[in-house]
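Every protein is a chain of amino acids, and every chain bends into a shape of its own. The protein below has been through that process, and both of its lines are reproduced in full.
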Amino acid sequence: ALRAWYIKINQLLQDSGFKRSHSDPNLYFKSDGNDIVLLIVYGDDLAITCSGTAAIHK
């Protein structure tokens, strides 16, 4: 079940414009030139941080 969820979340994040890190496949990032959003997938948990609060709402 966890693998199926990981495949689904990976596709969802990439469809939302996130890029997957080459050095860590659990790290995703999205940048618009001004702000950056970092997202870590760990099991069925997500951790997200960004350079500004407006970036997280985009």
Summary: The longest helix spans residues 2-15. The chain has one domain: 2-56. Residues 2-56 form one domain. The first strand starts at residue 19 and ends at 20.
